[in-house]
Design goal:
TIM Barrel, alpha/beta, eight-stranded mixed β-sheet, 39% helix, two-stranded parallel sheet
Length: 287
């Protein structure tokens, strides 16, 4: 394990005033965000830009991906008040772009899609100027469930590939690379106007050719937005970092991805799925 981070991974201090405001609202409304659950280093910047990523369906995941900081174990029943509380937070924080993500709930017959649908509808009906992005699990590849979320009208449908195919068995054994690509394909086939998005981490042992193949695979299903970021080991119980990728390599991948036809690419050591998500949404919609 590599304990000492390179200089380029030492992030600026978060915007404390906005961060504290968001933390207080989340506490009062008893809401989770992936910003805290996944230990995102960019939460202060996102909050300052009027963006937040809500983690729904509880804060415990039914899968055991070896890179992820979200808790695993015994899940709780769905909370029927959660959609209204998310809407209240959107209004109180005066958000302009909202990302709705979730833990994976393989224990639920619908994978939690009904909760996604309720939240999207509530925000769209009550905050017409707010753009909505969903970052969903794969719902076990159930096309009907996947499209039920797409049909509700989010502005962006995000589903992360996370890594290259050769590392799936070691990193996320309960997922399937081709199944995830199919999800993105089905969403785009449902509506060409619905922006699709995906992301990967690097530094887990992949090689450059494998990363480029992922870019080609995503463009083959007409994926619009891409994020590439550095994997950072959340705890000593998670997979170690194999490589700290240099910033200039991330820039090379950004330029290559744009050449391949992505509408927006965020590629950098501290990039995460929701990195500048509002900006990405705005620019991709205007593309």
């Amino acid at each position: 394990m590599r304990d000492r981070l390179p200089d380029w991974l030492r992030n600026k201090s978060p915007l404390e005033v906005k961060t504290n405001e968001v933390r207080e609202v989340l506490r009062e409304l008893n809401l989770n965000t992936v910003c805290y659950s996944a230990r995102c280093p960019n939460r202060g910047q996102c909050y300052g830009e009027g963006t937040a990523t809500f983690l729904i369906l509880g804060d415990v995941c039914t899968r055991n991906c070896r890179f992820c900081a979200v808790a695993k174990g015994l899940v709780q029943p769905l909370d029927p008040t959660e959609p209204e509380r998310v809407l209240a937070a959107v209004k109180r924080l005066n958000l302009r772009h909202v990302v709705i993500t979730s833990v994976t709930r393989d224990d639920l017959l619908d994978g939690g899609t009904s909760q996604f649908i309720k939240i999207i509808r509530l925000i769209k009906e009550n905050s017409a100027t707010v753009s909505v992005e969903v970052l969903t699990p794969d719902f076990k590849g159930d096309k009907a469930l996947i499209l039920s979320v797409a049909e509700t009208g989010p502005d962006i449908y995000n589903h992360n590939l996370e890594t290259v195919p050769s590392l799936y068995e070691r990193i996320r054994p309960e997922a399937d690379y081709r199944r995830s690509l199919k999800l993105l394909q089905w969403v785009k086939e449902y509506s060409g106007k619905l922006l699709t998005k995906s992301g990967i981490m690097v530094g887990l042992g992949e090689n450059r050719g494998e990363v480029e193949q992922v870019l080609d695979d995503l463009r083959a299903v007409d994926c619009d937005i891409l994020t590439i970021g550095q994997y950072l080991q959340p705890t000593r119980n998670h997979l170690p970092v194999e490589e700290y990728v240099r910033p200039e390599t991330f820039e090379e991948w950004r330029e290559l991805a744009l050449e391949k036809g992505f509408k927006y690419v965020a590629s950098g050591p501290l990039v995460r799925s929701s990195f500048h998500a509002g900006e990405a949404a705005s620019l991709a919609m205007d593309f």
